[in-house]
Amino acid sequence: MIVTRTKPAHDTVLYDGRCPFCVRRIDTLRRLDLRGRLRFTSLHDDTVARDFPELPRELLLEEMVVVDTRGNARGGATALRYLSTRLPPLWPLAPLLHLPFSLPAWNWLYRLVAANRMRLSGGCAEGRCRV
Description:
- This protein has one domain: Glutaredoxin (3-Layer(aba) Sandwich), CATH 3.40.30.
- The chain is of the alpha+beta class.
- It has seven helices and five strands, in the order ββαβααββαααα.
- The radius of gyration is 14 Å and the shape is globular.
């Protein structure tokens, strides 16, 4: 886990705003955030490099990252696990995501989906399919 100097006022989800697959997943998370606890920011927004310089751009291009109000940055499957405890509609998934010793399997699955997200989106932003 990376700790950032910036401690955001709200848990902040950083994602690839140029990836159609990612944008659709974030739209789902927005709908599930019934209490408005999260902030969503595309990694391409200028504020990300300014507020979270500790987070390498390469990491942000590979996986969604959630920075909590203490500055703890969680990426990939670990971020999903964290969100499953923060968003009540995801609570039914939390026990499965938190099974002891299951994180390596979730990380593998997350990386598999992330590596194929442009193909899974059925199209590419701005005609490009490169990450």
